[in-house]
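User: I'm writing a tutorial on reading structure tokens. Could you give me a worked example: one chain, its sequence, then its tokens, then a sentence or two explaining what the tokens reveal?
Assistant: Sure. Here is the example chain.
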Amino acid sequence: MSTETAAAAEVVALPPAGWEEARSRVYAVGLAAALPAVSRPLADADGHTLAEPLTPRTDLPAFPTSSVDGWAVRGDGPWQVVGRVLAGHTPPPLEADGSTVEIATGAMVPEGTTAILRIEESTRTADGRVAGTPRPAPEWREPGEEAYAGEELLPAGTPVDPAVLGLAASCGHDTLRVRRRPRAALLVFGDELLTSGPPGAGRVRDALGPSVPAWLRRYGCQVRPADVVGPVADTLPAHVAALRAALADADLVCTTGGTMHGPVDHLHPTLEALGADYVVNTVAVRPGFPMLLARLVDDDGRVRFVAGLPGNPQSAVVALVSLVAPLLAGLQGRPMPVLPQVTLAEPVAGRGDYTHLALVRLDRVAGTAHPVRHVGSAMLRGLSGADGFAVIRPGTSGAAGDRVPVVPLPLTPGERSW
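And here are its predicted structure tokens:
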């Protein structure tokens, strides 16, 4: 037996990792290799991840701010009008009882103001004074009412979205310290794959080349068209050259197919040739069992990862949600994704000693999950109508009415879990 064959036999003999164990393991190695923090202007920070807590630079609001259009008054009325205060200006104080200034919503409340009278609840006397009864509650926002300077509003690890950008701007930030988005690449393995036209004559259409980059973007990655390569020739030298080239720029390289040890499965010897070590090599989950994650560490300490996705399309997506999603959460410094719970509307079979990830469609009003049809590991029809995977743990099956975790499919780039 050759050295390579002996090594392969040893790898096959190792038991697969449990699904939950595998998720935890890849998240931990991703977090340990979290990408460095960089400063980004607000306009360029969407989709990144906060590398430090978001805190206001001043109290919010920074000064007393009128909540309504009306009259800032001092003392009892009727009041003599002595001016006007618009937003964006610093007004002089109201120094005399019986005086008032017209004030706009959002304007700074003058020092000495005892109340604000709403414009629609005021009248003018014959001599031009303002009359009316102010409401008992103050009609302005006090400094620090929303937050105090230096208070933690959002923790590090929060995905940056439009709401976060708006909050950061209101806090006085022009830039944010964020973790850059991971750079990803995809290598498609398989001489039998077509990249255009209908399948036939023993050849099938590559469905993962177009779809995996889109999934990766939805998990926060940068993937350029040039980062998608394949089909790569079914030879070991071609695999080694393609993977070495992809790793030059990428933090994560996903591969499709070749995760077993068949006659044209060259991924394992390629990883060995490049000096990779396995984080996870096969996972006790159905579909998608022959998935893997490997790590490479350069002499300068730079860490890169290779995610081996099975060649069957649905199995590849199972590998993405099982290994790639938690890895990317760690690399971006985000919390480990917490799986929501749903109620099964129909029974879902178990898979013996394996975790079963069953495609389901969610009824968000009722909070129930309905299994979908056409869910073979080589099929994509069921996936196209699904919202996620119900998790049926090893040694169990799902009965109607059971509460089970669900792995949601991301719908938009950088989307938070629902």
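What the tokens reveal: The radius of gyration is 30 Å. The longest helix spans residues 313-331.
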